[in-house]
Amino acid sequence: MDSNVLINERRRDLLDGLAQARREGLFFDAEIVCAHEGDGDKKQVHVPAHQNVVSSASPFLKKLFEGTERNAVKGVHVIFIPDVSTKAMTMILDFIYEGQVVLADASDVAAFEAAAAKLEVVVSAVKEEDKPVAPKTKTVDLTQMYGSSVVRLEGGRAQCMACGKQLSTFSYAVRHYETQHEQAEMEFKCSICEATSKNEDALFQHLRRKHDIRRSAMKKKKKKKIVKEE
């Protein structure tokens, strides 16, 4: 007797939805308490997360969550990792949720690798010959660009001044401002079927769902074009 196998074509949408929930600060059921260094002293910072997501990527965090009960006051599971900095934990969570992380310098690389080793997060190494050739870029200060539109809050969070919405990181708040406000009057048209989308993120979702084209593939093509032109 033949068996029928049904494929969930929207499985990738689930992963994208979890990452989007983190960007928008939605449905958090856990807090990871880390050490934040600044102004010459150390203080504890609560980094929000989704228990199922981080536990699936880190056996270390999974064991900690299994040994804790929901905090009666906060209503979430709270675990303490004082020997991992807030910045390192944020980079780890970026890697878990987004599937990639940008490390700005050697200190970020060292901090990320140390945190990944402690949290037992598996990081796939990229061979030197397989690394893409990066085009020459200039450093852009997002704080200067969006200082009047997005403001930083305590604990690494940020707020969109156009609508008051708070998000988990400054970069997510910038992205929110760009897609929800700055691009509000713009039209994004699909070059394949000419369907229109309200912003760039919506266009990428259309390309993935209707034409099976991934955002990463579009970025690779764009990078290759830039390198060729230079």
Low-confidence stretches: 134-145, 220-230
With strands numbered from the N-terminus, the spatial order across the biggest sheet is: 2-1-3
Topology pattern, helix = H, strand = E: HEEHHEHHHEEEHEEHH
Which second-level CATH architecture of the largest domain applies? 2-Layer Sandwich
Category from helices, strands and their pairing? alpha+beta
User: What is the CATH C level class of the largest domain, in words?
Assistant: Alpha Beta
The count of domains is 2
Gyration radius over CA: 20 Å
Major sheet summary line: 3 strands, mixed
Strand content: 15-25%
CATH superfamily of the largest domain: Potassium Channel Kv1.1, Chain A
How much is the average pLDDT?
77
| Intertermini distance | 60 Å
Number of helices: 9
CATH topology of the largest domain: Potassium Channel Kv1.1, Chain A
Q: What best-fitting shape do the alpha-carbon axes yield?
A: globular
Q: Can you count the beta strands?
A: 8
Bin the helical content.
40-55%
Question: Can you put this structure into words, describing what you see?
Answer:
- The N and C termini lie far apart (60 Å).
- This protein is of the alpha+beta class and 230 residues long.
- It is globular.
- The chain has 2 domains: 11-123, Potassium Channel Kv1.1, Chain A; 143-229, no CATH class.
- It has helices spanning 11-23, 51-57, 59-66, 86-98, 106-119, 142-146, 170-182, 200-211, 215-229; strands at residues 30-38, 41-49, 77-85, 150-152, 158-160, 166-167, 188-189, 196-197.
- The protein has 9 helices and 8 strands.
- Strand 1 (30-38) and strand 2 form a beta hairpin.
- A 3-stranded mixed sheet has the order 2-1-3. A 3-stranded antiparallel sheet has the order 4-5-6.
- Helix 2 crosses helix 3.
